[in-house]
Amino acid sequence: MEPTRHAPRLKILVADDEPANLRALARRLQRHDVLTAQSFEQAARILQGTRVDVVVSDNMMPGPGAGVALLRAARALQPAARRFMYSANPPPRLRQLLKEGVIQRFFAKPSDAPLVHALTRGLTRRGRAHPARGILAAAAHTPSTRPGPSASRTSTSPPSSP
Fold first, then answer.
1. Most Cβ neighbours (<10 Å): which of 2, 23, 81, 135?
2. Residue 1 — very low, low, confident or very high, per pLDDT cuts 50/70/90?
3. Whether pTM exceeds 0.85
């Protein structure tokens, strides 16, 4: 199904140092304009020259804190862009980063289904003035799971303290 006037194509920047991850997400999001970067530097160049609706970053890219640094740069350069982290390794201080809005949503690898679902639900909602805003509204309704032996974790808010 091609995007309609109610579900326009989004420009999505996906940053991950693993080419297989970039190819897999680009394939799953093929109805949209997907830009890929394998490093903080490549992604920062894209953010400086191209308007994007969503930034999806891995946490564990080359360089200390490169994933978080990228989402901080995205917030500074393109404050209207939604910032999602998709990683097998949550950053230290994830709760604080979510609270500060540096990361707006965390998705745990290896499953990209919750991420793709959040993007798809946001795109299919009618009457949104800006497609990326619908993504966050829809993402808030995506089921969360707690980590377990075989469960992946998705979260719209930080985990509660013990």
1. 135
2. very low
3. no
